[in-house]
Amino acid sequence: METEPPPTSGPSAAKRPRNAAATREAILRSAVEAFTRVGYDGAGVRDIAKAAGVTAMLVNRYFGSKEQLFTEAVDVSFAPRTVVTGDPAALSRDIAAALVERTAPEADHLSPFLLMLRSAPNPRTAEIARAGIERHVERELAAMLTGEHTDERTALALSVIAGVWLMRKVLGNTALIEADPERLTRQVEAMLRVLLDPESD
Amino acid sequence: METEPPPTSGPSAAKRPRNAAATREAILRSAVEAFTRVGYDGAGVRDIAKAAGVTAMLVNRYFGSKEQLFTEAVDVSFAPRTVVTGDPAALSRDIAAALVERTAPEADHLSPFLLMLRSAPNPRTAEIARAGIERHVERELAAMLTGEHTDERTALALSVIAGVWLMRKVLGNTALIEADPERLTRQVEAMLRVLLDPESD
DNA sequence: GGGCAAAGTATACGAATGTATACTTTGTGG
DNA sequence: CCACAAAGTATACATTCGTATACTTTGCCC
User: Fold this and answer.
1) B198, B147 contact by CB (below 8 A)
2) Cβ within 8 Å, pair A117-B119
3) pLDDT one-digit tens code per residue, B62-87
4) Tell me: the pLDDT tens digits for B118-143?
5) CATH homologous superfamily of domain B20-73?
6) What CATH number matches the domain at B79-200, 1.10.287, 1.10.1760, 1.10.357, 1.10.3470?
7) Contact B159/A164, CB-based, under 8 Å?
8) Any CB–CB contact under 8 A between A163 and chain B?
């Protein structure tokens, strides 16, 4: 009873027949997960491969090296642009709400910010992450701002966002974990508003 | 013939006669430097020992293990409490000014925030750093605040500070590096003021 | 239906890791 | 002056790392 009608284009193929593209994608997804959870230096190619159901050498066959795999993983992680798209007036509120929600203690979002924070110690991967954030996030967010020095204000906003990710999900700061989400959202929103809102004068 | 002064490439490790306390301190200083520059996992005990002018085994003799060495290094790094002490009204301004100055491109401050950021990927050292920040920084800063939820607002302020350290000195964000220091200071100050200043209503 | 390239695996290598055990050097007190 | 403990070193061990080389298995097409 070896029924094998393999849909060559299935997003989540359970029993995977020999399919280079699907295997490559499985490795890439496994890499995003691993790099996000333990960072670049903490994730071994053997672990990544095993979680994808293959051996370690396929990583190098398909991606050349661990570092090139990381480069693609950064793109994948930053790609799903969930940049809150709406009127610029609600920007601060939307960002604050999404941030507090995704960094909640019970959530385990595979955030690109986590990938970046945990891969930042390595200078080479830090540079790759910096380029990824600039290419995928910084540009779009800056385009939504009005007024002067939009790139600078954007980078400061990203600093705040990364800082909250760090304290809540990487370090596990007690005060920020136990904080009331609504009040926390209001405080973050107030800070972002100083940066992002169009100056009313 | 005194032909052996070269290995002491440390800061001020002159000709050190056999002195347990001095050696211990040299190792500890070297550890702070190494952990700050490359993080816990990136720093090998051999490197730390060599920079202190001794062999690797002295690290374990004096500190038990690399992890215990890190614990002491965290305390040393966070100990020089430069928390701007002044009237609470100027708190935001002082913090912002010190932050922007120390994260300037030309500065290479051995900041505890750098130590924390670069050792955060490792869960064990992340916890040690979290405890250190809570013990050394969070308490004192929270005590300077008035109003409600001082611990929460303190943690948020530390998020901002850590985020700026990350973007400017770990990632190397272009916009924040090239930004005018005075304007950057004003913007950071404005954000902190939202959090720290006594509500005037 | 049989070959043949593609997909995947096995093994190994050299370097680096933290640290345990055993050794050597040296300052100092009786 | 000289032993003896303290200070410091040398060597080794067991892992783990990324990846290179050589091998085996499989789907597909003529």
Assistant:
1) yes
2) no
3) 999 999 999 999 999 999 876 666 77
4) 999 999 999 999 999 999 999 999 99
5) Homeodomain-like (1.10.10.60)
6) 1.10.357
7) yes
8) yes
